[in-house]
Amino acid sequence: MKLAPRARALAPSETLAINARAAALRKQGKDVISFAVGEPDFPTPEHVCAAAKAAIDQGFTRYTPAAGIPELRSAIATRMGRSLEEIIVTCGGKHALYEVMQAILSRGDEILIPAPYWVSFPEMARLAGAKVNAVRTDGSFQLTADAVERALTRKSRALIVNSPGNPTGAVYRPEELGAIAELAVQRDLWIISDEVYSAFVYAGKHASISSFPGMQDRTVVIDAVSKRYAMTGWRIGWCAAPRVVADAVAGLQSHMTSNATSIAQRAALAALTGPQECVEEMVRAFDQRRQVMSGLLDRIPGVRCPTPEGAFYCFPDVSGLLKGKVRTSAELCAHLLEEANIACVPGSAFGAEGHIRLSYACSEDDIRKGMERFAEAAAKLGKLAAK
Ligand SMILES: Cc1ncc(COP(=O)(O)O)c(C=O)c1O
Predict the structure, then answer these.
(1) Average pLDDT over residues 152-157
(2) Is residue 51 situated within a structural domain?
(3) What atom of ligand 1 comes closest to residue 232's alpha carbon?
(4) What pairing do the DSSP bridges indicate for beta strands 190-194 and 313-314?
(5) Mutation probe of ligand 1 site: the residue of 18, 120, 350 with most atoms within 8 A of C-beta
(6) pTM: predicted TM-score of the whole model, two decimal places
(7) In this predicted model, what pLDDT tens digit does every residue of 217-274 receive, in sequence order?
(8) Is the CB of 239 under 6 A from ligand 1?
(9) Whether residue 172 is found in the same domain as residue 288
């Protein structure tokens, strides 16, 4: 019995695989520190949990409208300056991205994806039948309008913008976003703007490409409560899209999942409309941790790590360590897991060999301990290579 080609061609998420390997080693009693996870270590705020419990107690446990409960859509619409009809609540940001790509991409279309990219973007685009055209970013992982223009072909239909970005932590400059927006209008491109990390900008403010002239009609913004409110397991995200796309996504969703979980929608409503100090507290903690981690990484011989400006990842250049026994970022991550008991994700998973990704959404103690182990393992590698 054979699987369908689309399932056979799919590359499973490498980040989830590494997490599973780290968990297995932990089960064997090893003191593994994981820098592989893409989720805050903070608990979901209490008032959010209370809203979910109240929803259960009130019997709010039935199907909801496919596009989401009107109160939640309305709260999101107000926040994003769009109409309620343009907001569709989905089962997480990932699901919103998947459905949007299904709605706007066809076989033979091409989608431009800035590299390094989050692992799921290319796979989702391929599932929609599109061809992936990776656009190189510059030395600071900034996407430039020039690079997009050079990559465009007659088949280009959409461009992904992910700022702050996973895996690099890069935050795109408003001037450059403006230039990219102009190009999108000229070349009639859809923009899929993944803004799930918009709360995690450490210097300055988040700028959305949807705010530039002419962009509301061609931009689909993807967002979620997952990262901002430490709600990764609740699975609530949304897209804010021109009506044609929003209607198509709602239609797709009515057949795929019927709706996002009723209880989790009530929890998301409490998160968006309740006190926001919980977000500020988490962002302050991550700001401190990003400086500690990037500083310690940058001190390790063979590693270069500028301080990232957003999200919660460091994406150091480790090419200085790739010699002798360890030649690739995947081999380096395997070595770090076996020798130093630290889990990191190879850059190859994000289309960027020579780098690795480390999440600093973990305790400062773990960051300090983990970076010490990294430094020792790197020194050992240096000695081995010199033999
Ligand atoms: C860039 C990016 N977009 C979307 C998502 C998915 O978020 P969610 O957990 O809401 O599906 C992630 C999760 O890691 C991400 O890194």
Answers:
(1) 97
(2) no
(3) 9
(4) unpaired
(5) 120
(6) 0.96
(7) 999 999 999 999 999 999 999 999 999 999 999 999 999 999 999 999 999 999 999 9
(8) no
(9) no
